Amino acid sequence: MTRIAIDCMGGDAGLPVTVPAAVEFAQRHPDVQLLLVGLASEIEQSLASHRDAPRDRIEVVHAAEVVSMDDSVEVALRRKKDSSMRLAAQAVKDGRADACVSAGNTGAWMAISRYVLKTLDGIDRPAIATSIPSQTGATTMLDLGANVDCTAEHLLQFAIMGSALAQAVDQRERPSVGLLNIGEEVIKGNDVVKQAAELLRASQLNFHGNVEGDDIFKGTVDVVVCDGFVGNVVLKSIEGLARMLGSMIREEFKRNPYTLLAGAVATPVLNRFRQRVDNRRYNGAALLGLRGVVIKSHGSADVYAYGFALQRAREAVISRLLERTAHGVAQMTGLSAPAPDGVRAPEPPLAEGSTGSSL
């Protein structure tokens, strides 16, 4: 049984999204137990409208406070110690849950998760990682906003964690890693990027070399590494471009009766295209480097998108992402420290094809 703690109050919509998504997810996966964390009376009221909810696998955990999207990290961390966000992370720390998910304030979620769960030995900073659609399937990219200023050593750690994620969840036997740069040549980039490239070449990772922005969508490598400032700009640019293209395509098909007819004929193709590039299907970013599985959903996620964040949490647990990350970090850094509290000791990577199904 995979246990997932959900911050039901987080996100732009809160309960109207998190509770229906949780119920649908529990119905699809009988091997999942959910802890719905938040204002208990409001959660129960929302659950009452879902008569087919598997209540034997859904537990409501009361939290007296809510971290808003506008709260500062200090307020979330020090003044709201009984928040739904805090208790969801604490459930993982206490062993009541195997993973936790929130669509709330990203900065607060990162700070609370790091404070409650702590980082793995050998990791200085957690990083946000997610999958981006490409011509070959999907590209794992990190960091996407957790760390604005990074050293070369931090970028190396991101590469180790991203490689572990691609290996565990996407079943890539030896994931290729690329360092995002303004050119493929070794002489390109700032001092930090150049130093990071040297560290990556000297590591045991399958380092491809420098990659450019278009390589993300070509699928040139399995993992693309960058600092959080660049990664967040890239991610928001992708989301904005997708919305613009969708709007422009709709406008063109509605231009006159002939284009409307053409749109009707092209509907099957357009629907398949929309499904392939639908950013909701890629919702759910992993906060790597922590002593627990932590997933961040997009704040504006709807029920459909939030379901994919929950799916990502489930797959991360099934594929033993935490143990694999700890093992990968220990292997790369030469550490032999014990496993994180409440986590099984790191094991060697499983043979190809023996992990859970990919996302």
What can you see in these coordinates?
This protein has helices at residues 15-28, 40-48, 73-79, 84-93, 106-117, 152-168, 191-202, 213-218, 228-253, 257-265, 267-277, 303-318, 321-333, and strands at residues 2-7, 32-38, 58-62, 99-102, 127-134, 137-142, 176-180, 206-211, 223-225, 285-288, 293-296. It is of the alpha/beta class and 359 residues long. The longest helix is centred in the last third of the chain and has 26 residues, at 228-253. Helix 1 (15-28) packs across helix 2 and helix 4 runs parallel beside helix 5 (106-117). The model is unreliable at 336-359 (pLDDT under 50). Helix content is 45%, strand content 16%. The two termini are 18 Å apart. The protein contains 13 helices and eleven strands. The relative contact order is 0.15. It has an eleven-stranded mixed β-sheet, sandwiched between helices.
Considering the chains and any ligands shown, give keywords for the structure.
16% strand, disordered C terminus, 359 residues, alpha/beta, globular, 11 strands, eleven-stranded mixed sheet
- Poorly predicted runs of 5 or more residues: 336-359
Helical/strand content category = alpha/beta
What does the average pLDDT come to? 87
- Quaternary structure type: single chain
Order of helices and strands: EHEHEHHEHEEHEHEHEHHHEEHH
Please count the beta strands (DSSP E, at least 2 residues each).
Answer: 11
Task: Tell me about the largest β-sheet.
Answer: 11 strands, mixed
N/C terminus separation: 18 Å
Beta-strand residue fraction: 15-25%
